[in-house]
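Quick log. Single chain, no ligands specified.
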Amino acid sequence: MLETSKDLLYLVIAFAVLWLTVFFCWAMYYVISMLRNMSKITISVREKLELVDKILKLVKEKLEKGSNHMAVLADSAIKLVGFFMEKQKKTSAKKKK
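-> predicted structure:
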């Protein structure tokens, strides 16, 4: 089997290449699994950001609609106060006569 030292060298080199190949396959497996996990994390973060964006848009719409309603209510309140002030002036003018 081993006739010369050259044969022993080839055998040692063959085992070294075999173990180097096993190491690279093992390292590639872990790198690929880490990249897959990073991809899942990125997708999760993207979904969360989209959810936050939707919530912020909803809040913005609610505030815009609410401010429109508040403007209508404020105008109505001003008109109502003006009406009561005019009515009060008329009643006070009638009382003076």
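Helices lie at 5-96.
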